[in-house]
From TrEMBL, chain A:
<keyword id="KW-0547">Nucleotide-binding</keyword>
<keyword id="KW-0436">Ligase</keyword>
<dbReference type="InterPro" id="IPR017958">
    <property type="entry name" value="Gln-tRNA_amidoTrfase_suB_CS"/>
</dbReference>
<dbReference type="Pfam" id="PF02934">
    <property type="entry name" value="GatB_N"/>
</dbReference>
<dbReference type="InterPro" id="IPR004413">
    <property type="entry name" value="GatB"/>
</dbReference>
<keyword id="KW-0067">ATP-binding</keyword>
<dbReference type="InterPro" id="IPR006075">
    <property type="entry name" value="Asn/Gln-tRNA_Trfase_suB/E_cat"/>
</dbReference>
<dbReference type="GO" id="GO:0005739">
    <property type="term" value="C:mitochondrion"/>
</dbReference>
<dbReference type="GO" id="GO:0070681">
    <property type="term" value="P:glutaminyl-tRNAGln biosynthesis via transamidation"/>
</dbReference>
Automatic annotation (TrEMBL), chain B:
<dbReference type="GO" id="GO:0005739">
    <property type="term" value="C:mitochondrion"/>
</dbReference>
<dbReference type="Pfam" id="PF02686">
    <property type="entry name" value="GatC"/>
</dbReference>
<dbReference type="GO" id="GO:0032543">
    <property type="term" value="P:mitochondrial translation"/>
</dbReference>
<dbReference type="GO" id="GO:0070681">
    <property type="term" value="P:glutaminyl-tRNAGln biosynthesis via transamidation"/>
</dbReference>
<comment type="subunit">
    <text>Subunit of the heterotrimeric GatCAB amidotransferase (AdT) complex, composed of A (QRSL1), B (GATB) and C (GATC) subunits.</text>
</comment>
<keyword id="KW-0436">Ligase</keyword>
<dbReference type="GO" id="GO:0050567">
    <property type="term" value="F:glutaminyl-tRNA synthase (glutamine-hydrolyzing) activity"/>
</dbReference>
<keyword id="KW-0496">Mitochondrion</keyword>
<comment type="similarity">
    <text>Belongs to the GatC family.</text>
</comment>
Amino acid sequence: MAAPMLRRVGLGRLWGFAWVDGGSGHRRGSPNGSTSSRRREQSSVAQQPLHTAQKPRKGGHKWAAVVGLEIHAQISSNSKLFSGSQVSFMAPPNSLVSFFDASLPGTLPVLNRRCVEAAVMTGLALNCHINKKSLFDRKHYFYSDLPAGYQITQQRLPIAANGSLTYGVFMGNKQSRMATKTVRIRQIQLEQDSGKSLHDDLRSQTLIDLNRAGVGLLEVVLEPDLCCGEEAAAVIKELQLILQALGTSQANMAEGQLRVDANISVHHPGEPLGVRTEVKNLNSIRFLAKAIDHEIQRQINELESGGEILNETRSFDCKLGCTVPMRDKEGKQDYRFMPEPNLPPLVLYDSASLPAGTESQQVINIDQIRDALPELPSATRERLVRRYGMLPEHSFTLLNEVGLLQFFQNVMKETRAEPKKVTSWVLNTLLGYLKHHNLAVSESSEKPHL
Amino acid sequence: MSARALWLAFRSGLGGRQAFSTKVNLQGSGRITVEVIEHLERLALVDFGSREAVARLEKAIAFADRLREVDTDGVEPMESVLEDRCLYLRSDNVAEGNCAEELLQNSRQVVEEYFVAPPGNISLPKLGEQESFQHS
């Protein structure tokens, strides 16, 4: 599989990298030791000559970046994954905490049916294979916001695996053409969220609020098929839309309902993968793209000046606009995974294997869930293109802006004007107006009546 | 060949249906090295304060090792002793919580309904510096 070529995105400097389509199936390796033929414009001559490598490199002068994402989405449910305390964003500290969440002795986990359904729905929407039997494990580490000293997760056998997510990327600078790409999904698993820590550096203490401890999370692990910040941003946007359409998560990054960690490494195409770093603390799609691109650049700069990349965890500092090493991470962790002794395997059924005479509340039928899946964003977009004859790019814009699709459909209901005219008006005139005045669709005073 | 060696050969022959791997690798003789002790102390925060404690650990491992004498040829390993039970599914209703006062009573220190914890993780002293590990 060819490593996609690095594309310089929007940082405004003169780099000589050619943009190669990520779908090309061949690898190009330069002959070893061909320093004389190494073209100057491939290195960062634009700024500092420091970036020019001193020693000959085999495998060519182009860099390819490999980005893998791990996404944690908070499940939209009334109660937590293993306990009956409420899931809510704002509440007095420690008021939504049960004895189990506080890890008091003698408490046991009881699995929430809604969370399992949410996981199955998400797995089906992402074309995954749903494992009819999945297992729960304990992942041990010490931190004050994890009262039990371990997190219940699904490491050995998760609920869903081997799926794919198709997303659209705008081509070129004018955003006038779209290409579809696919990223593979390694697995989806159910796990517990931890509590929240508020660091009080003044008094050298940490304040712990366990309201979030035990809330159900869907961890979606993607294969490292991505090559830059723009692709990552498009993937996350599509995933958000899917989760919101399913209702399994509100996926609001600003409120912490969707958290993304990126694993990033760079290498020369044809050579083995480089050391990767993990970047955390990304709380908006914009910062996600920026952080990934900056980290790729940092690694390239580091390697080109003869340094090496440490396998570390870094945080994105939005003020500085770069990644910085995170403190408090002691090398590689040994999580001492073990089966969760208090939970039997989770068994799911389909219509064929459904046992007779069982209480319907106690069984989950995958086929039933599949039949009840709502329309996914890709299907909505296809429907818009078919019905109104609009360009795919327009359908993307309609869905990406919160409330715009609803507005458009309301207008179409009331008007006798041509769909193409309405599309053009909504996307150009209305959207332009909203952007100019920095308004959301819901805030605008425009009504669908024309 | 000892029963243990036979068993290890059997495991490697199976081709790796090893669900978990930890970093703790025991020497063939059953002695626990200083590195292993250090590693365990950091992970589990137990204190193997004395040579006797380590000897006790070695004896405990030898005791458990007798399990390996059982012939498990052709026997499928269990997932868990609960694997034949049904996993009960709870309906998504709010039935617990609202006991902040009770829970906070367990904490030595409390600030405005928050539990108070030390800042981040306190790192253990390094190998050379460690004389005895002070329990707080």
